[in-house]
Specification:
two-stranded parallel sheet; 10 helices
């Protein structure tokens, strides 16, 4: 190829290990249609989240790569300190095993599996904290979508885009991959400290604007001219 686009520097690094010439690779982040996300977030949700507890939400396929096991274990630890409910948006082959895990950890009554949702953003809008526990992400669109909905985010510091999206932890909390205690601490801190939660939400929403479609489209055009 004359040119290769990578959706993050993490993906670029992976390409280089396969022998792709550095001079051919250009990093252009994934675009997120912010206006559409914000409009959908204001529509009536498919269900009302509980208002008597703190609400933690995640979104993604229920597969090993997303490491929902770590999130559920962390949530169980956090729930010992704060009254909360975990909402899991998405479906996949690991659903039954994850449901069993919630009962083993005695949090089955506080974890809701919502399956695939045609409009997840109206659900995100109701939550207090968004968590992504992936082992790897090429980019991590869900982080930008959650930030656009006004949520503070906690993400694994996995290979790929999350660290870049969150500007090294400035716009969200980064936790080591598989670090149950780290995720539990981050979730507890954000739920128990409204001022910290609000500050991350503000910074996250500002950061999300940098991934809007018109801006990323210009970057693609500039990169194509370079090729």
């Amino acid at each position: 190829a004359d040119g290769v686009f990578a959706v993050s520097n993490g993906v670029k690094d992976s390409l280089l290990t396969f022998g792709v010439s550095p001079s051919k690779v250009r990093v252009v982040y994934n675009p997120v249609p912010l206006r559409e996300v914000e409009e959908m977030a204001l529509q009536p949700p498919s269900l009302q989240m509980r208002v008597d507890v703190c609400r933690v939400v995640t979104m993604g396929r229920l597969i090993d790569l997303k490491d929902h096991d770590t999130l559920i274990r962390a949530f169980a630890k956090a729930r010992a300190t704060v009254n909360a409910c975990l909402y899991i948006i998405g479906d996949g082959p690991n659903r039954q095993a994850l449901e069993r895990l919630t009962h083993v950890l005695q949090v089955g009554d506080a974890v809701r599996f919502l399956g695939w949702q045609s409009n997840p953003f109206a659900l995100l809008k109701q939550a207090d904290v968004f968590v992504l526990s992936s082992r790897f992400e090429g980019f991590g669109n869900v982080l930008v979508e959650a930030m656009a909905c006004g949520l503070p985010v906690v993400s694994s510091d996995c290979p790929g885009g999350p660290r870049e999206i969150l500007k090294g932890g400035e716009c969200g909390v980064l936790v080591g991959v598989g670090d149950v205690d780290g995720f539990a601490h981050a979730i507890t801190t954000l739920l128990c400290k409204p001022e910290v939660r609000a500050e991350y939400a503000r910074k996250g929403k500002e950061r999300a604007r940098e991934f809007d479609v018109p801006l990323i489209a210009e970057e693609y055009l500039a990169a194509l001219r370079g090729v």
